[in-house]
Structure formats: C-alpha cells, structure tokens
Q: What sequence folds into this?
C-alpha cells in the first residue's frame, strides 16, 4: 500500500494520509517528482508506461512518481529511480531543475545502456534513449504518444 500525504491549495500538508488509489479517486492534491535522466550524447531516457497504468498507459514519459508520506522530495526522486529502473544514485548527483505547481523537477546524468536498466514491469514496459532535440520536435508537433506539458517543454529546451 502506497500512502501519500494530502496537501491543500497552498501546498501545506493537511494531516490526511491516504492510499494512492483513494488519492486519485478523490482527486486530492499531493507532491510529485519528475526526473530527467540525460546522457553525454544529449539524449534523454524515455520510458514507456505500462499498459496497466491508470493514466497515460502505453505513452512515453520521463521518470515520475509520487512523494510517499513523510518522505523528502529528494528521497522520493531517488527511490523512484531505484524502483522503476533498478539503479541507485547518490543525492549529490541529483540536480534541481525547479518546481512547477506541485511537481519538483530533477536532472540525473547517466550513461548506462538501455539493457542495463532493470525495469519495474508494473510501471513501465521499456526504455529508450532519445535525442533531446527529437523530443522537443515531437512535443511541438503535439505527438500524442508522449506525456509532456508546456513547462516540461521549456525544461527540455534548457537541457539541450
């Protein structure tokens, strides 16, 4: 059971802690993390969301997840990387890209090959390195196989 702390419109914790399914069913506010994993070739690691995902199934995204109850934002980012991709990083390797609404954005440099990742099959079905410039182009063409918003487009532009 994944427990999440509920927050109010101002980003303050309400004291309520609920399971992730209830959180989504009730459309409650909560903190999330997004991690851009980039290699030295100016490619970003995209992951294809599992067919069983409730939201955006079978679409390509960067690593993202919820902040568990009583967990720090940075610890959530590192935990999500470990859970979904099977690799560990040190907190010092996590670079802050900013915060938008209730989501914290991070960057990790990584030069592993696609086959070096151990995928959490409940979350994702595959990963691939894609040139950042190609992702930007696809977002601008409104490619509906991707899960990205306007804020993330601007982050991609900064990364290239």
A:
């Amino acid at each position: 059971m994944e427990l999440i702390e509920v927050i109010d419109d101002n980003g303050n914790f309400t004291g309520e802690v609920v399971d992730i399914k209830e959180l989504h069913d009730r459309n409650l506010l909560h903190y999330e993390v997004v991690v851009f994993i980039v290699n030295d070739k100016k490619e970003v690691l995209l992951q294809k969301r599992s067919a069983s995902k409730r939201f955006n199934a079978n679409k390509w995204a960067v690593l993202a997840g919820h902040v568990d109850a009583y967990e720090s934002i940075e610890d959530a980012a590192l935990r999500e990387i470990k859970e979904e991709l099977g690799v560990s990083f040190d907190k010092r390797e996590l670079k802050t890209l900013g915060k938008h609404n209730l989501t914290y954005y991070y960057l990790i440099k990584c030069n592993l090959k696609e086959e070096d990742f151990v995928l959490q099959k409940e979350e994702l079905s595959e990963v691939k390195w894609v040139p950042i410039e190609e992702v930007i182009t696809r977002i601008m063409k409104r490619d509906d196989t991707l899960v990205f918003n306007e804020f993330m487009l601007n982050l991609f532009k900064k990364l290239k």
Remarks:
- The helical segments are 20-25, 73-85, 132-140, 150-159.
